[in-house]
Write a structure and sequence with these properties.
Elements lengths: L1 E5 L5 E6 L10 E2 L3 E2 H6 L2 H6 E6 L10 H14 L12 H14 L6 E7 L1 H15 L6 E7 L7 H9 L3 H6 L5 H11 L6 E6 L7 H4 L8 E5 L15 H17 L19 H8 L4 H20 L3 H28 L4 H14 L14 H12 L14 H16 L1
Parallel strand pairs: 2-5, 2-6, 6-7, 7-8, 8-9
Antiparallel strand pairs: 1-5, 3-4
Protein name: Alpha/beta hydrolase
GO molecular function: hydrolase activity
Subcellular location: Endoplasmic reticulum; Membrane
């Protein structure tokens, strides 16, 4: 179920997901109170987020779940009770329950930030992947992973000797569930950003398991905690609390207007000697389209400088590849049809980029939107080694002649 800690009709939600055998007390520091209460009191969070907890049934003592469930059902029938006989279900099934709550009870939120501890992170991860794979709108925009056993937990292996509890089986490093989930995660380019927290004194989930095996540079936060204290921060000066506050601040700054500052051209002659402009001139594209393309290029250059980390550059590289594919599909149609003009081709691919902004071209970099993606197309065209042109004339010599003509005009 979903229990709200604060609900003030904000467009963003922070939701806490506990782990194996957990519940609300998972988040309780005996001196400083619950993690979610501490977080909700921060001005940044109070002004921008509602806060809630997702809770589900999970118990260690259910050593014989099938028998216990059967007995409970018999008792409920004899008592004519309406209480359901709860039992431990697998992580995948819990994730389906989580998805249902997000789809219906949390439908009004634009963005959801998940803070998950231990097995709760696998629940969230599974839910995210299912949404992406099935083409649903995944509202989880940031995933904060607190000592989550992405590669399994050793205690799960020992637990298999004691119990046929499905959750323990899923957590075991040698089970199929964790490796399969992790392999799907690293192959999914549309996954949300994830922040990996691990405890230096954690004897349950190793550091290697807690930080996963992403194919891009990971953001890893080391906490002076064990497996249980990492989700029970001791006030505002605790590393986990400071880091979560920092990431929420970055998130709000990045999504408050969902835009980078838009930069204008200094004058209409800016970029006249760049190859992407010369290619447009060679194809006899209208001057107004060239000016807009310059503005797009300028803003894409700004974004590329801003996202300079190796992790961000990897995400940008994937985006460039998809934009190139959209261009190639449009150009192939243009070349095969044998009619139309280059201006129409440029307009068509610009329109395709806008229409695919939230779909095929969706990126985990929240500030990148359609205008920048249009500019990324012209960044590709600015490289003579990249096969982005607007006419069948693809001569570098022709470009240099156009440039020479521009230079002569400028000198006059």
């Amino acid at each position: 179920m979903i229990e709200f800690i604060s609900k003030n009709n904000k467009k963003n939600l922070v939701i806490f997901v506990h782990g194996f055998t957990g519940g609300k007390d998972t988040w309780k520091n005996l001196t400083h109170g619950f993690f979610f209460d501490q977080l909700a009191e921060l001005p940044l969070v109070a002004e921008n987020f509602d806060v809630a907890c997702f809770e589900y049934f999970t118990k260690l003592t259910n050593l014989f779940p099938a028998a216990n469930s059967y007995i409970a059902k018999i008792k409920s029938i004899l008592k004519m009770s309406s209480d359901k006989a709860e039992k431990n279900i697998g992580i995948s099934e819990i994730s389906e329950l989580f998805r249902s709550y997000i789809r219906f009870q949390l439908a009004g939120y634009e963005n959801i930030v998940v803070i998950a501890h231990s097995m709760g992170g696998l629940v969230a991860k599974s839910a995210i992947l299912k949404d992406i794979e099935q083409g649903y709108n995944n509202k989880i925009s940031l995933f904060i992973s607190l000592a989550v056993p992405h590669l399994g937990a050793d205690l799960g292996t020992y637990g298999k000797l004691l119990s046929n509890n499905q959750q323990i089986n899923d957590l075991a490093p040698l089970s199929e569930f964790c490796p399969r989930l992790n392999n799907k995660w690293v192959k999914q380019s549309n996954r949300p950003p994830i922040k990996y927290f691990y405890g230096t004194y954690d004897d349950v989930v190793t550091k290697q398991s807690a930080i996963g095996t992403d194919d891009i540079e990971q953001d890893i936060i080391t906490c002076n905690d064990d497996h249980l204290t990492i989700c029970k921060p001791a006030g505002a000066s605790c590393i986990a609390m400071m880091a979560v506050h920092h990431f929420l601040s970055d998130f709000i700054n990045g999504t408050s207007d969902n835009n980078l500052d838009i930069i204008k051209l200094e004058d209409d002659s800016q970029f006249d000697d760049e190859f992407f402009v010369l290619k447009l001139l060679l194809a006899d594209v209208h001057n107004s389209t060239i000016k807009h393309s310059k503005e797009h290029f300028l803003n894409a250059e700004y974004a590329r400088k801003l996202f300079s980390s190796s992790s961000d550059q990897k995400k940008l590289g994937q985006l460039y590849g998809r934009i190139r594919t959209l261009y190639q599909d449009s150009y192939d149609k243009f070349a095969n049809n044998g009619h139309g003009n280059s201006g129409e081709l440029v307009a068509e691919i610009h329109q395709k980029i806008i229409s695919e902004d939230a779909g095929y071209l969706k990126t985990a970099l929240p500030l990148i939107h359609g205008l920048h993606k249009k500019g990324m197309l012209h960044q590709l065209a600015n490289d003579l080694n990249d096969d982005v042109w607007w006419s069948e004339e693809r001569s570098e010599e022709a470009l240099r002649k156009i440039k020479a003509g521009l230079d002569e005009t400028t000198q006059k």
